[in-house]
Structure formats: structure tokens, C-alpha cells
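Thread: "does anyone have the structure for this chain?"

Original post by V.I.:
We have the sequence but no experimental structure in hand. Need at least a predicted one for the grant figures.
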Amino acid sequence: MENNKFASTIPACNMIIALLIFAQIPIMFGLAPANTIIYAMPWILSAFPVLLICIVIMFKNGEFVDATINAVLSGVLMGQNFVRGIIALTMLNAGTQPAPDVLAASAAMDTWVYLAAGIILLVGGWLAHFKSKLTATGVWASAIGFLSLSAMYAGFGQFFGLIAGIGLVTLGVYLLYSGLAILVNTAMQKKVFPF
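Reply from O.Q.:
Generated one for you, C-alpha cells below.
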């Protein structure tokens, strides 16, 4: 029987998401205004099609836990950052600011979306822990990040934004390490990096 699997895209997906997280660190920690997302758009736009291809291949290969987590984490959440950047750029070019009621509605939507994403990632981390404790830790860090974003947008304070930033940077470090470890270990056909 012919093997219809592709090579695993998990290392590429992990490293790309890490790069996108690192590109947004100045915004996450208040070192740059939120409209700076405009300048992250080239990174997001160039990465987004590759991420979608990686996710499809993961599903095709039967790596449904990794595929689902990456679809939620990158396919949807990074995609909305790209659209948010377009909105910010359009408003900047028009010299306008969103009305307070629009900002309140946006925060309300973000509250529920980040809450749902956090719950999905909690379950994803639980599933991942059967395969790798390190992977579970990375996924749970992202879950804490998204749940904290939900709390921040619900009005519980900017401190939750700091917690979210720490959780997402922890995820970024994990993704970079795991992507490199899988890539090197697979290429060398031996365990070079512990993973």
C-alpha cells in the first residue's frame, strides 16, 4: 500500500508561529502602541499562507491534535491580527479613530473569543501531555495567555495583559526550541536536542 503522508510540517509551523509572536513582543509589553500591528502585517501576511498549508498537511498526516492547536493558534488568531492591522492602517490613512462604542464592542468580542481559545488550548495541552510534557507546558502557557487576554478585555485590568504577554512569549520560546529540536533531530536521525 502506498504511503500518502507528507513530511511533518510541525517544525516549520512551530518556528513560524514563534517568529510571529516575537514580532509582536513590543506591542504585548506596551513598548509600542497598538497600531504598531500595522508593521507586523508583512510578517503575518507572508507567514499566513504557509501556516495554512502546514495545517492542512498536519490534518492529512493524521496529526489532528497538533493540527487543531495550530489551526486555533495561528490560522484564526494570527489571521485576525492581520485583518486588525488592515483596519488600523485604513483608519490611520483616513485620519479617524474608532468610536468608543465600537471599541467597547470589539473588547466584548475579544473577551469571548480569547476565552474560547483558552479553553480549547487547555484541552489541547491535556491531550499533548500524553505525548510530551514539554509540549503540554507550551500549550498551557498559551492557554494562560489567552485566558488572561480574555480577563483584560473583560475589564479586569491591564495586569492581565502582562500575564498574557508572559504566557505568549513562553509559548514562543517553546515553539522555537521545539521546532529546531524536531528539525535537527529528524535531519540528524538521532537525538541531538532533548525533546
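V.I.: this helps a lot. DSSP finds seven helices and no strands in the chain.
O.Q.: and The two ends are 31 Å apart (CA to CA).
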